[in-house]
Amino acid sequence: MSGFFASVSHHECEIRELRADRELAIEYLKIAVQALGNPDECAAASRMLQALTEAYGGLESLRLDAGINGSDWKCATAALSSR
Question: What pTM was computed for the model?
Fold first, then answer.
């Protein structure tokens, strides 16, 4: 079986992509925040936020670059914590 690459999880690839492309990460954050308002998408949004947090060590700088204001952010994070 030589010649095969070691397997890499989807999550690890996702983290690498987000780290490598900040603009992608910003758009990803915008989508995640929108999805938090939809009960059917909340679990996926939570997973997206987790990946972004792992990629950037936090979300504050991405939030600012994404233009998400403080009140919208509070509503989004409140929606996440209430589930």
Answer: 0.81
